[in-house]
Design goal:
By secondary structure, this protein is of the alpha/beta class. It contains seven helices and 16 strands. Strands 1-16-15-14-2-3-4 form a seven-stranded mixed sheet, with no helix packed on it. Helix 2 packs parallel to helix 5. It is an enzyme of class 3 (hydrolase).
């Protein structure tokens, strides 16, 4: 029988003192013997622009870097052009420093998939997938290269101190959308993942022994009000993913997303899930809205404020004997911290599933 857990959440909305005030030490790589303690992630990175955040990212000594899409801006049907853009990114000096010290995993979004807002109709998706795996330095004989889509999963740490990272492909099988008056019209019959990926995701969650299950993809899952890309454009698929989390009783699910050129945090409660689910969006490694917020960017699920400057995301795991804690953080230029959420994962003493603690926000 699975043990029961609850969450205690505290939120700091104002600027925090950066972790860099403390002396940094080199961390062991996350693997079966060493638990994951520092994960960094980001999205929306143009190979044609200045890239000022790689050195601040390095200051945090991440054991893992996670790409969440728009890793380059390809936007082409010409695969030679796409390959050249990947090569330009691989040659960026400070990105090479991160590559030399930090394992990398990832997924894609529209601009590195092929075109802005593209889905399964994109004609070069098979060749684009090959270039994506080349960029990620995936071995040529990897089974990932044989599947239809770039979804992948990885588990880090020994039993009792495990993090599973599940990265979804919300492009290869994404159905079409109609846009009216600058907003997408919900497609209730459409899908984002395709049935094979849905079945894979169910097995990954059902069979997970991890204390935290991190699900990342290119677009926001919780957000409903934006007129742009989001899971809510496919309401049936959005409901399905939350129902799947509830049905599999996956522990400690946290969502990561990109795409929006801002950073924000959203939180939702869902029937059958005994804890609130967070979606931490980090978007804008090289370009962000920077004060150009459209329509005030409404999001009724938002916790705190939108950060509209360049940013990257951090997850810090603390594997204490009595509680497992993860801090969700947004940082920007000069390693400055802008928002922090701390989630404590507490083992219940009794066999009754406790209600989530309300905490303070």
């Amino acid at each position: 029988m699975r043990p029961f857990y609850c969450f205690l959440i505290t939120l700091l909305l104002t600027a925090c003192a950066p972790y860099s005030n403390k002396k940094q030490t080199t961390l062991p790589p996350a693997n079966a013997a060493h638990p994951l303690t520092v994960l960094a992630f980001g999205s929306c990175n143009s190979q044609e622009r200045d890239q000022p955040l790689w050195l601040p990212i390095l200051k945090n000594k991440p054991q893992l870097w996670v790409w969440l899409g728009d890793n380059i801006y390809g936007d082409t049907d010409d695969m030679q052009v796409m390959a050249a853009k990947y090569q330009k990114q691989l040659a960026e000096p400070n990105y090479r420093k991160l590559m030399a010290t930090t394992p990398m995993i990832g997924t894609w979004d529209d601009h590195d998939f092929g075109h802005d807002n593209a889905g399964k109709e994109y004609p070069q998706k098979a060749e684009s997938q090959r270039l994506f795996w080349d960029f990620m330095q995936e071995p040529q004989d990897s089974p990932l290269r044989q599947q239809d889509g770039v979804y992948n999963a990885h588990t880090y740490g020994p039993p009792g101190r495990q993090v599973k990272i599940i990265l979804l492909d919300s492009r290869t099988h994404r159905d079409s959308l109609l846009r009216q008056n600058g907003r997408y019209v919900p497609n209730f019959n459409g899908d984002l993942l395709g049935e094979t990926q849905w079945q894979w995701l169910e097995q990954e969650l059902k069979n997970s022994s991890a204390q935290f299950n991190i699900i990342g993809n290119g677009i926001q899952v919780i957000q409903e009000e934006s007129g742009g890309e989001k899971w809510a454009n496919f309401p049936t698929a959005r409901k399905r993913i939350f129902d799947l989390i509830a049905r599999t009783q996956a522990r400690g699910v946290i969502l990561l997303s990109g795409d929006r050129h801002v950073a924000e945090l959203a939180k939702i409660t869902w029937p059958g899930i005994s804890y609130p689910v967070y979606d931490l969006t980090s978007s804008g490694l090289t370009h962000s809205l920077g004060g150009g917020l459209k329509e005030g960017m409404p999001n009724r699920y938002r916790v705190g404020k939108v950060h509209d400057k360049l940013n990257f995301g951090l997850l810090r795991f603390d594997w204490g004997p009595e509680k497992k804690t993860v801090s969700l953080e947004i940082k920007g230029r000069h390693n400055k911290s802008h928002q922090l959420v701390k989630v404590e994962y507490l083992t219940a003493a009794s066999g009754i599933n406790p209600k989530p603690s309300s905490g303070t926000e």
